[in-house]
Design brief:
Blueprint (H helix, E strand, L loop, with lengths): L10 H24 L8 H12 L11 H31 L9 H6 L4 E3 L21 H10 L2 E3 L3 H8 L27 H15 L1 H9 L3 H5 L8 H48 L8 H12 L1
Parallel strand pairs: 1-2
Length: 302
């Protein structure tokens, strides 16, 4: 039941998505603790902020640095991409309707207890199966109406199905063929038409006309496949996900650059404070006392 909400992506795409979310949580946590101007966040607060952004929820946090804002923008880009791919596949699946059951042979239908198996009441296959009388139908038309109305599997002539229901996308035939029947022309013995018909049949078969006519009659796969949806593959979303992964690496580079710039600014500010203390007292002082005098000046000014 719950697979309805997770089958929009293949397992590989879900794994990459979860990895990106964890990377964004760790990046936000690292930025908040290493950046001087950001509010310190716990790992749970970082996870709440990232997951909330992915769910289109805002946050009261105010990010001041380029690294923090890059993390937020990357999270929002991931939210847009995930929402676009997820909703497009979900809407397509709703428009196409439920998928057809996956059966390969009669054994699969026999194992599926919710399906009822039947065929024509006057069919020669009645000797091969032991079925209830209510499981049999009077005609192929009645049987197909029952197929469309309930969970019913009908043993039907392939020619009749191809001509009347071959383009119906709500029913399908098993890939295997059972109980083949052979048709032939009945002619009087020593009829002069026998060699003529034999030659015509051989020419038709050798020219491939039988296969051509059959494909033209039973060409339903193309249109019906358009109504089926498949999970989004990893290769479809791999490129944008890789770009977002590079953005996370960019966050670490921006954070390192901000740390270098901040330390240089603090060192320069410390030197300027030391010079201001020397000029204020107007006499040379011991360099060892400069940090103490700087601290005293700062405290007294506040």
């Amino acid at each position: 039941m719950w697979s309805v909400y997770t089958k929009q992506f293949e397992p590989g795409a879900w794994v990459v998505l979860v990895f990106l979310i964890l990377s964004l949580v760790l990046s936000l946590f690292v930025v908040s603790w290493w950046s001087i101007h950001e509010v310190k966040l716990s790992i749970s607060d970082s996870a709440l902020a990232v997951v909330g952004a992915l769910l289109s929820q805002g946050s009261p946090l105010n990010f001041q640095t380029a690294a923090g804002r890059t993390v937020v923008l990357t999270t929002l880009f991931l939210q847009v991409l995930t929402l676009a791919f997820y909703t497009s596949n979900l809407v397509s699946a709703l428009a196409a309707g439920p998928p057809l059951p996956v059966f390969k042979n009669l054994q699969d239908i026999h194992n599926e207890k919710s399906f009822t198996f039947g065929f024509l009441r006057s069919s020669s296959n009645a000797n091969d199966f032991r079925l209830k009388d209510e499981d049999l139908v009077a005609s192929y038309t009645v049987g197909m109406e029952r197929v469309l109305r309930e969970k019913y599997a009908l043993l039907i002539s392939e020619v009749f199905y191809a001509l009347n229901f071959g383009r119906h996308c709500k029913v399908f035939m098993l890939p295997a063929v059972y109980f083949p029947n052979y048709l032939s022309f009945a002619l009087p013995k020593d009829s002069p038409l026998v060699p003529i018909l034999n030659k015509v049949v051989v020419d038709i078969l050798s020219a491939g006309l039988m296969r051509k006519w059959w494909l033209e009659t039973y060409d339903s796969n193309t249109k019906c496949n358009l109504l089926e949806t498949a999970p989004i593959e990893l290769k479809t979303v791999l490129t944008p996900f890789l770009l977002l992964g590079l953005s996370i690496l960019l966050v670490l580079g921006v954070l390192a650059g901000e740390l270098v710039v901040s330390r240089r600014a603090l060192a320069k500010d410390l030197v300027n404070r030391q010079k201001s203390v020397v000029m204020h007292f107007n006499f040379p002082i011991n360099p060892a006392l400069a940090p103490i005098l700087t601290l005293w000046t700062t405290v007294s000014s506040t």
